[in-house]
Amino acid sequence: MGRAARTSRVARTEPPRRGRAALWKGLGGVLAVSAVGAAGAGAGLAVQRRAMRRLQLRPDPHAGEPFGSLRGRPVTVRADDGTRLYAEIDGEDRTDIAVVFCHGWTLTQDSWHFQRKALRGLGRLVFWDHRGHGRSDGGARDGYTVSRLAADLAAVIDATVPARTPVVLVGHSMGGITIMRYADEHPGLFGRKIVATGLLCTSSAGLGEVTLGMPALLARTGHRLMPRALAALGAGSGAVERVRHLSRGSAILIEDRIAFGPDASPAAVAFAEQMMSETRMDAFAGYLHSMITTHVISDCESLAGADNLVIGAENDLLTPAEHSLRIAGCIPDSRLEIVPSAGHMAMMERPSIINDHLGDLIARAASGSLPEAEPRGA
């Protein structure tokens, strides 16, 4: 599939009764904000069934795709607080270039399914699950913060990449936030150990003002309610875990409405919802709370030494294309791509376009045109 993206060069431009009440009020607030457009408030089971039928009848280019079946050599990573993180390595014999993939919130390393399949052979590929996601452990409840992300990534790189192997970091959504925070804490590594980055559908400004396509008044109300709702949701995560699977149909419709573009594969939507449903509730609530209450994720200046590719998506409601424009505008000589028609899950919706861009990025990094990587810790 040829490139269909628009390209531009961007210059520097069980709790007690009171706790349970707060929990359900909070959960109601989260769902009220998230479910807009999915079935409509009080629309009823019949409407949900019709919506599900429309989704299931949508043309599906990925029907039968074995999502989650691709595996590499498992590696246990210990974060600096002792939390066990799970990683896998493909192409372990390659030491000329390593590519570390950081997934998004409520996903797992398997969200890179199409990239893992297409990019094998281009280098040492490292995939890992954030704490509280996939096969990684959860750690302490107060550890689900954007400030924690960089340290976890540092531990993964240290455990999976040889000392003198240059690294390409690729991140989607919260994974992109992870990379930006890592750059802020290790600026001397960019352009040396870290030779390139691919930042896909992410934000440097936090998610506190994202409207999800809602009218401004409803969005502002959601922003006021969300932090308290998420705090209650996290505090009652054990109770919520016991009932969360009772509304999987609604969750799939919400996933389709918010995370995907208008013609997304039903199989891809269902797999994304499965990953979300298996994410620990304390991680679900804790990371989201941190992302919407952190007003500035990064100023992106520390990325400047690397070869930076920023990819946004035309129909992204969670991190709108303007967020990608802002990131690219802060990084001299970055390259910006906007993928037409795709939503937040662009790597699952338009895999050929994303694979082309990332393949080019990795090939440039492996060509040796950048300075030799410094030993770890430089």
Topology:
Layout lengths: L5 E4 L7 H18 L10 H13 L15 E6 L5 E7 L7 E5 L10 H7 L4 E5 L17 H15 L6 E6 L1 H12 L8 E7 L15 H20 L1 H7 L4 H12 L6 H12 L3 H13 L13 E7 L7 H10 L4 E5 L6 H4 L1 H16 L12
Parallel strand pairs: 4-5, 4-6, 6-7, 7-8, 8-9
Antiparallel strand pairs: 1-9, 2-3, 3-5
Helix pairs in contact: 1-6, 2-8, 3-13, 4-5, 6-10, 8-9
What's this, in brief?
Helix content is 42%, strand content 14%.
Explain this structure to me?
Helix 1 packs antiparallel against helix 6, helix 4 (146-160) packs across helix 5 and helix 6 crosses helix 10. This protein has helices at residues 17-34, 45-57, 113-119, 146-160, 174-185, 216-235, 237-243, 248-259, 266-277, 281-293, 321-330, 346-349, 351-366, and strands spanning 6-9, 73-78, 84-90, 98-102, 124-128, 167-172, 194-200, 307-313, 335-339. It has a single domain (1-38, 45-367), classed as Alpha/Beta hydrolase fold, catalytic domain (Rossmann fold, 3-Layer(aba) Sandwich), CATH 3.40.50. The protein is 42% helix and 14% strand. It starts with 5 loop residues before the first strand and ends in a 12-residue tail after the last helix. It has 13 helices and nine strands. The radius of gyration is 20 Å and the shape is globular. It is an alpha/beta fold and 378 residues long. Helix 11 links the parallel strand 8 (307-313) and strand 9. The longest helix has 20 residues, at 216-235. It has a nine-stranded mixed β-sheet with strand order 1-9-8-7-6-4-5-3-2, sandwiched between helices. The model is unreliable at 1-43, 211-223 and 371-378 (pLDDT under 50).
